[in-house]
Amino acid sequence: MSGAASYADVVEGVRAAISRYTQALDDGRVSDVVDTFCADGICDIPGMGTHEGSEALTRAYTRWKPRAPQRHLVLNTLVTEWGQDSAHAVSDVVFILLGEGGWSIQVVGRYDDDLRRDGDRWLFQRRSASFVIPDPPKGEPR
Q1: Most buried of the four, 17, 30, 47, 102, by CB within 10 Å?
Q2: Which domains does the chain have, with CATH numbers?
Q3: Order of strands, edge to edge, in the sheet holding 102-118?
C-alpha cells in the first residue's frame, strides 16, 4: 500500500486479514493461521486462554485443529478506529460444526481485534473473543 491509506483501503485490508484467518482456521492450516498475527501477536479466547508470540500461537492452534468440518461465520465487521498503520475492528462470529445431525450452531460471539499494517498486509496484534452462548468447554477448539 503506497501513499495515504483511505478508510476503504484499511477496511478492505482488515476484512482480508479476518478472511485469511478464518479460512485457514477452518481448514486446519496452522502455519497460515499464525501467519495472520504479528510476531508478538496475542490471541485471547475464553476457555482456551491467552497465547502470545508465534511459538505459543503455533502450539495453541495445533491443539485446536478441527476434528470435524467447521465454519466460523464472521460478519458485521466494523472498523471503529483506523490510521495509516493500525486499526481496531469488532465483528460478530457464529461457529457451526458438522455433526451426525447436520450443521449446528456451537457458539455465538464477538471478535475484538487490534491490527497492524505490515507492508501490503494487515496482521492481528491482538485478537480477543467473547461469547454470548454458550462458552466453549475448556480446551475445546472454537
Answers
A1: 17
A2: 7-133 (3.10.450.50)
A3: 49-52, 37-45, 121-133, 102-118, 86-99, 70-82
